[in-house]
Prior knowledge:
Elements: H1 3-25, E1 71-73, E2 83-85, E3 106-109, E4 117-126, E5 133-144, E6 154-162, E7 170-177, E8 182-183, E9 189-194, E10 202-211, E11 219-230, H2 242-262
Antiparallel strand pairs: 1-4, 2-3, 3-11, 4-10, 5-8, 5-9, 5-11, 6-7, 6-10
Amino acid sequence: MSKSMIKLGLGLVATMAIVALPALAEAPYEGRGAFVGGNPTSPGPGTPMDCNNADNPVANCGFESMFDSWVPTDAGMPFLALQTIGAGYTNGFSSFATTPTEGSFVAVNGFDAAGPDTIQLGQDVSIPEGGDATLTFDYRGAWDLQTFGATMDRTFEVTIEPSGGGAPMQTDLILTATAGTMVNDSGEMTGMVDVTPFTGQDVRVNFVWDIPENFSGPGFFQVDNVNVAVEPAAAPIPTLGFFGILLLTGLLLLVGFRFLNRG
Length: 263
C-alpha cells in the first residue's frame, strides 16, 4: 500500500472522528421507564396522615395503594414512568430524593418526555356541600432546563374537569419551570386550589404536567397528601320580616310616648 493511500485513509478516519465527536457530546439522555435500582432507603413512617380523615372525599389520598382510585395518564415516551414509590429515590441527575409527606409512598414522574406531551393524574371526587372548599396537596419538583438546550417552559397545573374527564372548567397554574434554569430541589411545597364553585358537585381533580419539547432536560416530581376540606356553611343571620319591623316600630313608639308622658 502506498504512502499516499495510507495518508488518505488516516485522513478519512480523522475526519469521521471529528464529525462524530460533537454528535456523541450532544447525544440526548435516554428515558428510564420504571425505577430499576435508584437510590433507595428504608421507607420511613412518614408524617401524620393529614389527608386520611373522614371528611376528605379523595380516596387513596397518599398513594399507599398505588394508583387505586386514580386515573394515571403517562406521556407516550416518558423520561421516568409515572408511578408510586417509597422514600429515597432520585432521577439519577442530582435531584432531591423522594420523601413522603404522608404515609410511606408518593406519586412521581420524570417531568420530561418525548414531547410535546402531557403527564396527567386525576381522580373523580364528590365535593361536599358547605362553605369554602379548598384542595391542598404536597409537591416537590426538580428540573434541568439549562444543560440540554431547553427553549420552552414546563408547567404543573391543576384542572377541574367534569366527572369522567373533559374540557377543564377551571385551571390553576401551580408551578412554572422556566427554560434556561436548573433547580435540583424546589423544597417541600403545599399547593392550594379554591374549589368552592364546585361544592355539591361530582368533578375530576386532575394534576397536569405539560412537556412542550422533546427530551430537553431531565426532571423529577413528587405529589402526596391530597386533601379536599370544606368549611361548614355560615349560619344565616336572623332578619325581621315586614310585620316584625312594624311590631318593633310600634313598641319603640309606645316606649317613647310613655317616657315623654312621664316627663
